[in-house]
Design a protein that fits this description.
The chain is of the alpha+beta class. The protein is built from one helix and two strands. Helix content is about 20%, strand content about 15%. It has a two-stranded antiparallel sheet with strand order 1-2. It is globular, with a radius of gyration of 11 Å. Bound molecules: zinc ion (ZN).
Length: about 60
């Protein structure tokens, strides 16, 4: 089961990433870190994460 994590992407914009199954990182390789700043709600999703996630799902 994959969990979502909201954090900055490569451009610093907050997006929803998808965590790896062991929850140590994200599918796009972004470093998982706690953001001390205000948690702005976002409906944007990390494109590399989504692409990787779809590839993972399709191979199962
Ligand atoms: Zn991502």
């Amino acid at each position: 089961m994959h969990e979502m994590w909201c954090g900055p992407d490569t451009s610093g914009q907050r997006v929803w990433h998808i965590l790896t199954t062991d929850k140590t990182g994200t599918l796009c390789g972004a470093e998982r870190q706690e953001d001390p700043r205000r948690q702005d709600p976002t409906d944007k999703h990390c494109l590399p994460c989504m692409t990787t996630f779809q590839a993972v799902v399709q191979t199962r």
